[in-house]
Amino acid sequence: MASIFLSYDRDDAERARHFARALEKAGHHVWWDLHVRGGAQFSKVIEEALIAADAVVVLWSANSIESAWVRDEAAAGRDSGRLVPVTIDGAQAPLGFRQFQTIDLSRWNGRGAPAPLRTLLADVAATAQSRELTNGEVAAALPAAPVLAPAERLQARVPLLVAALVACVVLLALVVVFRPWQRPDETTPSVAVSAADSSQLSTEMARNLLVKLGSMQRTEDSTVRLPEDIGPGPADIRLAVNGTSDGNVFRANLSLISARGKTMLWSSDFERPAADRSALEDSIASAAARALRCARDEASGEYGRLSEDLRRTYVNACTALTDAFADEDSLIPQLRQVTEQAPAFRPAWVQLLTAESAYASLIRDRNEEAAAARTALARDAAAARKIDPAMAEATLAELQIHHPLTPSQAMAIVDRAKRLDPQNAAVLVARAAQLSRVGSMTAALDDAVAANKLDALSPNTRVNLIFATLFAGQVDRARIELAAAKRLWPDSSAVREAEYELELRYGADFEKISRDMGYIGPGFQIYLNARRDPGDAPMGPYMAFLRRPENAKRLYFGLQGLGETNRPDQFYQLLAEVGDGGSLTSDSSLLFRPWMASVRRDPRFMPLTKKLGLLDYWQKSGKWPDFCADAQLRYDCRTEAAKLK
Question: Are the C-beta atoms of 12 and 57 separated by less than 8 Å?
């Protein structure tokens, strides 16, 4: 495996992604950075990556020939005999580089293995193998590459591009994040990134983590001070990376260590197939940034100091809570312990209210248990307001404290929370959920996108974006977001759930993923039969199943099947028999999903929305739902609303 430095202009990132994947699949390790320069603290890392590379692949384009960074990197490759030039849009290489034969891949869209791509892979392999040793150092001795057919060479080398893509995305916000023109204040904690052992793999992983962390921090508030180079130097917090490989699998351990108490605050293990090393490093960087954000809450000293034991408790609970399927019930006692022992520590109150709100929502149907959870949440929200009267999470807690709420009441709460803290990702996620429940799917997607920009490190926030994109009818975009989430959080159950929802509604083999998720039971099999054959015969057993009293809790999901199979008559018939099913009152969002169009186009839909309190919200706010603009709608929303009023 060779080390490849991929040089290109940031505006060509999508095209560069194809090359990084092809190189990685060929078995190489690709270093790429989107040419977003974070200042002096990263120039050394970039320079070292360029020096260490066995080959420098330069993607010439109308954009890159104007880039001073690309020209400098190309010159480094040219002067050391490691340059492999490619044109991706037919642009001619600039003066000083035209003596080299440029490979034309301007028509390649990332698919297949055209002859120029095979030439590129062969040239990279030859350049890497022929690189002369310098300064008496022995280059990593690679076994003689087997002579493969062109197609085999291509298939063997595509993993490197996958790694390069993530590195690109990681560095995208480098300048914005680190703001090198600003001096960090004394409350900004410093972080040392180091290898846990002296192995080459651990050292490489630590160096790559250092670079990736720069792009993972989106705002000045979450910034930490990173060193110019990896090493165990003095710092408030240390990240230690240990990497191992048996040839088939890469494994890594990441530890967050307190320099103050020299204690381990948090640790996590990672594992990926050898062909997917770059994805492994992306997962490590994402987890590290999330843990750092939690550790920074205390390390800054802004809200006081915690004991090492309490600090460890907080960091672990805070990090775990970022997953959409976190076990809030077990995290609540840990976070309450922090608030009781350190009542002035505001971040713990934020996390506690977040966990309690999620848990109260989860157990809404458990009567006495749910009532007790709401009581505890109300008590903690009141206590948190004494710490910070404008804490937005205390306002969001009202969604659960006062459950059930009308659409107007719920929207008033999330709008108030947004006024308190418009740059709070949790607020935007909650508001997106409420907007989808009143049919404002485009506005919901806007809030979900904004939340993800503010908190790109959280699987929870990304999963909400995937669902908002899917429910807005943008299926291709949802698939792109899902692919990015699977890369960063391959083991996340929340991401897997999002994949299941997408494939169930739009996948070619939705039955396979249903089996993989373990969802196929007797009732689900009846649903699948109706999906395969939307005729009258399979619908009889499906309707009979939904009518059973013991299946009342499945009604919410069963109604979607009637929408998917374009059965509005059965939909309204079933609702007339069993009422609104209860769950529609608290979450009407399913009514506005793309596969429910036939239900909305039926004139009976407006009376249903009146019953659910939606019509009252639309009329009083003047914010009519997106479906009212549907060209195939058989009625005018405002006219029907006036009749029903």
Answer: no
